[in-house]
Design a protein that fits this description.
The structure is a single chain. It contains 6 helices and 4 strands, in the order βαβααββααα. The protein has helices at about 15-25, 45, 50-55, 70-80, 85-90, 95-110, and strands at about 5-10, 35, 60-65, 70. It has a 4-stranded mixed sheet.
């Protein structure tokens, strides 16, 4: 278990999610984020307040005090935490951007195993 103040819980079976986490690791020069795949056996024990189905629905971000963000809200918070991410996170402050981001995130999450993969990716049925 990391001493990072925030934990990102992501779908470790999703190639796009895994690549995104690799980018976040590069941007996280202050070690603010611990990255944990939702398939890790300790996830349910560490975060009992998060229902199991939530991990299939969206990325989760958990602060050390237990505050939890999911989906587009988690993406926004992660971007706000990282200096390079702040170059992008301002977009969430444009009027109507948050509802649009929420909708786009849900579409992405439902289709993540089919998006962004070529012949080298294994498409996972839902």
């Amino acid at each position: 278990m990391s001493q990072a103040p925030f934990t990102v819980i992501f779908d470790g079976d999703c190639n796009i999610c895994t690549r995104s986490v690799e980018l976040l690791r590069e941007w996280d020069s202050s070690a603010l984020l611990e990255m944990v795949p939702s398939q890790h056996p300790d996830v349910a024990t560490r975060f009992p307040w998060i229902p199991e189905h939530a991990y299939a629905d969206a990325m989760q971000l958990v602060a050390a005090d237990g505050t939890t963000w999911q989906g587009a809200a988690a993406v926004e918070k992660v971007l706000d935490l990282l200096p390079k991410g702040r170059l992008i996170s301002w977009i969430f402050h444009i009027p109507f951007a948050r509802p649009l981001a929420d909708r786009l995130y849900r579409v992405f999450a439902r289709n993540r195993y089919r998006l962004g993969c070529g012949a080298h990716c294994q498409v996972k049925p839902r």
